[in-house]
């Protein structure tokens, strides 16, 4: 494999779940070999291999076994050693996306519209509805997909659906269904921007509480409250029997300090 790097990465530690899809096997081998020279590298190996597995097949083999080595020391595979020689050698090769069932929520974000439509065309010409719902969900997580089935002459008429969709940035796959055509339109969804809430500091650098307009509004509303408007504690209504019926006269009885029963529990 060539040693020319396709992307600018300073270290193998720079790989992640997003950029691993666009890194060549040769670049991984080169970065890994450079990383092994660092004493701090071994603890990161398993984590790095898990990231590599997202986009590559990863196999460990014993390079001391000639028969085993012959399987992976080919142009199809790229190999690199482990820091611990007891763990053998690693062989990797790019995962092929050759059919719809190869799609996942991870790799769907890294294929083109043309690749997607080519995969759909290989689905025995069944059209969009013939694709399993689980695969359609994966596709629609990263692509906007619409379909229409019309006679060929109507689909291709000037100013028709096909022309308008292409003008709107869609690419199309035409699936023949007798004298009619199912047009599957697809285009990449714009990446969603993650919104982050920025909390304003409550105190300034000197430790004083920062007052904002909301605080001032609350203070003004508090100042506007008249003392006469404050609810006073309700007084009992002498004509209300319910008040006195719930009043326990025993509550006012004072226990005599000399009474020996003062220290006894109610349960006794």
How would you write the strand order of the largest sheet?
Answer: 1-3-2
Structural class by secondary-structure content: alpha+beta
Tertiary shape: flat
Radius of gyration equals 37 Å
The unreliable regions are: 1-5, 240-268
* Mean pLDDT across every amino acid position: 80
Characterize the largest beta sheet: strand count, sense, and whether it forms a barrel. 3 strands, antiparallel
- What is the β-strand count? 6
Number of helices: 9
Q: Estimate the helix proportion, in percent.
A: 25-40%
Question: What is the succession of H and E elements?
Answer: HHEHEEHHEHHEEHH
Strand content: 15-25%
Oligomer: single chain
How far do the termini sit from each other?
92 Å
Question: How would you describe this protein?
Answer:
This protein has 268 residues and is an alpha+beta fold. The chain has 9 helices and 6 strands. The chain has a 3-stranded antiparallel sheet with strand order 1-3-2, with helices on both faces. Strand 5 and strand 6 form a beta hairpin. The longest helix is centred in the N-terminal third of the chain and has 11 residues. The protein is flat, with a radius of gyration of 37 Å. The chain starts with 24 loop residues before the first helix and ends in a 23-residue tail after the last helix. The N terminus and C terminus are likely disordered.
Provide the descriptors you would attach to this structure in a database record.
268 residues; alpha+beta; three-stranded antiparallel β-sheet; 27% helix
């Amino acid at each position: 494999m060539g040693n020319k790097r396709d992307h600018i990465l300073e270290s193998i530690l720079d790989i992640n779940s997003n950029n691993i899809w666009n890194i060549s096997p040769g670049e991984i081998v080169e970065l890994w070999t450079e990383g092994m020279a660092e004493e701090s590298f071994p603890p990161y190996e398993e984590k790095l291999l898990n990231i590599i597995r997202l986009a590559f097949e990863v196999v460990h083999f014993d390079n001391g076994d000639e028969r085993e080595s012959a399987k992976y020391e080919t142009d199809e595979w790229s190999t690199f050693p482990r820091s611990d020689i007891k763990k053998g050698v690693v062989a990797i090769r790019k995962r092929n996306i050759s059919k719809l069932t190869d799609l996942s929520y991870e790799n769907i974000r890294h294929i083109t519209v043309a690749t997607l439509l080519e995969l759909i065309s290989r689905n025995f010409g069944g059209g969009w509805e013939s694709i399993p719902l689980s695969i359609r969900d994966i596709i629609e997580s990263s692509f906007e997909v619409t379909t229409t089935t019309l006679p060929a002459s109507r689909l291709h008429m000037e100013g028709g659906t096909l022309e308008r969709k292409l003008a709107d940035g869609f690419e199309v796959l035409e699936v023949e269904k007798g004298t009619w055509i199912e047009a599957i339109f697809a285009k990449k969804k714009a990446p969603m921007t993650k919104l982050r809430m920025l909390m304003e500091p409550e105190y300034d650098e000197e430790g004083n509480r920062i007052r904002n307009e909301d605080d001032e509004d609350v203070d003004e509303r508090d100042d506007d409250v008249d003392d006469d408007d404050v609810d006073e504690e309700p007084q009992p209504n002498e004509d209300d029997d319910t008040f006195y019926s719930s009043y326990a006269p025993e509550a006012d009885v004072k226990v005599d300090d000399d009474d020996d029963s003062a220290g006894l529990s109610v349960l006794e």
